[in-house]
Design a protein that fits this description.
The complex is a heterodimer of chains A (225) and B (221). Chain A has 225 residues and is α+β, with helices and mostly antiparallel strands. Chain A is built from nine helices and four strands. Chain B contains nine helices and four strands. The chains are: A alpha+beta (225), B alpha+beta (221). Chains A and B meet through strand 4, helix 3, helix 4 and helix 5 of A and strand 4, helix 3, helix 4 and helix 5 of B. Chain B: Its EC number is 2.5.1.18.
Chain lengths: 225, 221
């Protein structure tokens, strides 16, 4: 339908999932065009729609946007999930970037060479436990508010919920020492738009399995890093 | 002096150089605390200044900001180098993020082990000449304006110019086929604030030599 954002990616989480989460949390309906083959991706490239020949790409408000942060920033601004002023935005950005660093670490578990997987898993668990989870618990402890910034829902609460669920998938005991994070997780999960997105049948993508990884590698003619 | 941003980093370009460029282009005076030893870094970690125990750190307007993008976004907003509305911001973000992807490869080059340097340099040459520079040349060609977005200087122009200089240091003929990029670089370099920053004696950092890399490694390892 005209007007809905259209998301171009493959049928998996990857770098598009945070965008799906943010749109869903904002109550915005969106369409998805999934790359099934490498030809699908090549066609987008040949048509000149990918500025750097890469996905994710989102068509929104007449723009063809690539680069996940550009897409996220636009959506957050449009739906008033980016704080009330430049200083709140700075905190939101700082917190968001830490979450992206942790999320990328977990993505590398999936995309690395198989013989590196154990090491990558250890690294992700270690950094979650010693660096990231304590940092966000500390933010919540410092102001005792229901949300990370400005005492109201912003994008970073959504990003945090998403990564907390991934941490839990990695190792469910990791969240145990962090009561405020657990409380935030419950609270944000209960918001109507988020609750809906968490239910089966939504556009939320499941964890990776070997099938999804193999398909992605074919589409992207993938080289692990 | 109270009021000036303070940049905490080691004495090298790394991830702080883009911040130095943006502040300089905006005509903002800043101080630098250049870390020299592991203890300098440990001290910052221990006094809670570093949210994720990492640099860069910038103290600005009462905030202790880490994460390069958070710092750059704030500076760009404050000094009106981030477009006039959210659609211009989206385009600026798209362009800036592409430049950051290229810069990841460039800023690491001095710090790579010897056996990885050649491969990374080949990657930089390939990506800059075949992916990134053509994309930005095309943008300039498409509107024929003096700047990338909105016919006005933005953070995207400043970042692009920084990268054009840095890539050229590694690959002297990198800009040969990109006349509009060369023209933009000249134009931006002649702006009074940028011209000043390009002169010797400014806070701009040189390409990291072995001595610089050794000193940095001591702090972080």
């Amino acid at each position: 339908m005209a007007g809905k954002p259209v998301l171009y990616y493959y049928n998996a989480r990857g770098k598009m999932e945070c965008i799906r989460w943010l749109l869903a949390a904002a109550g915005v309906e969106f369409e998805e065009k999934f790359m099934e083959t490498s030809e699908d991706l090549e066609k987008l490239i040949k048509d000149g729609r990918l500025m750097f020949q890469q996905l994710p790409m989102v068509e929104i408000d007449g723009m063809t946007l690539v680069q996940s942060r550009a897409i996220l920033n636009y959506i957050a601004t449009k739906y008033d999930l980016y704080g009330k002023d430049a200083k709140e935005r700075a905190l939101i950005d700082m917190y968001t970037e830490g979450i992206i660093d942790l999320t990328d670490m977990m993505l590398r578990v999936v995309t690395c060479f198989p013989d590196q997987r154990e090491a990558k898993i250890s690294l992700a668990k270690d950094k979650a436990k010693s660096r990231y989870l304590p940092a966000y618990e500390q933010v919540l402890k410092s102001h005792r508010q229901d949300y990370l910034v400005g005492n109201r829902l912003t994008r970073v609460d959504i990003h945090l919920l998403e990564v907390l669920l991934y941490v839990e998938e990695l190792d469910s005991s990791l969240l145990a020492p962090f009561p405020l994070l657990k409380a935030l997780k419950s609270r944000i999960s209960s918001l109507p738009n988020v609750k809906k997105f968490l239910q089966p049948g939504s556009q939320r993508k499941p964890p990776y399995d070997e099938k999804i990884i193999e398909k992605a590698k074919k589409i992207f003619k993938f080289q692990p890093s | 002096m109270a009021g000036k941003p303070v940049l905490y980093y080691f004495d090298g370009r790394g991830r702080m150089e883009s911040v130095r460029w943006l502040l300089a282009a905006a005509g903002v005076e800043f101080e630098e605390k250049l870390l020299k030893t592991r203890d300098d870094l440990e001290k910052l970690k221990n006094d809670g200044s570093l949210m994720f125990q990492q640099l860069p750190l910038v103290e600005i307007d009462g905030m202790k900001l880490v994460q390069t993008r958070a710092i750059l976004n704030y500076i760009a907003t404050k000094y009106n180098l981030y477009g006039k509305d959210m659609k211009e911001r989206a385009i600026i973000d798209m362009y800036t993020e592409g430049l950051m992807d290229l810069d990841e490869m460039v800023l690491y080059q001095p710090y790579l082990p010897k056996e990885e340097k050649e491969g990374n340099l080949a990657k930089i040459k390939d990506k800059s000449r075949n992916r990134y520079f053509p994309a930005y040349e095309k943008v300039l060609k498409s509107h024929g304006q003096d700047y990338l977005v909105g016919n006005k200087l933005s953070r995207a122009d400043v970042y692009l110019v920084k990268l054009l200089y840095h890539v050229e240091e590694l690959d002297s003929s990198a800009l040969a086929n990109f006349p509009l990029l060369k023209a933009l670089r000249t134009r931006v370099s002649n702006l009074p604030t940028v011209k000043k920053f390009l002169q010797p004696g400014s806070q701009r950092k040189p390409f990291e030599d072995e001595k610089c890399v050794e000193a940095a490694m001591k702090i972080f390892h």
